Amino acid sequence: MELLKLENNVRFILAVVKGEIIVSNRKRADLYVELQTKGFTPFPKKAKAVEPEVAAATDDTEETEVQKENERQSKG
């Protein structure tokens, strides 16, 4: 799989340098279509892990609640 990605990268760079593929001032979707017609293998991005973000958000919420409670106690 890594070898296929590297081969795709080399082919893409060479095609851009030779002028076979124009990258500038193009929509990404149009470029993807051209790459697929020229035989490039698409590699979908891996989904980001949702759990660490949720855990971090929960921790922040808990800290905020603790801070608010401490402020209430110090005022009252």
TrEMBL record:
It comes from the Eukaryota. Residues 65-76 have a biased composition (Basic and acidic residues). One of its GO terms (molecular function) is DNA binding. InterPro entries: Topo_IIA-like_dom_sf, Topo_IIA_A_a_sf. Residues 51-76 are annotated as: Disordered. SUPFAM superfamilies: Type II DNA topoisomerase. This is Dna topoisomerase 2. It comes from Quercus suber.
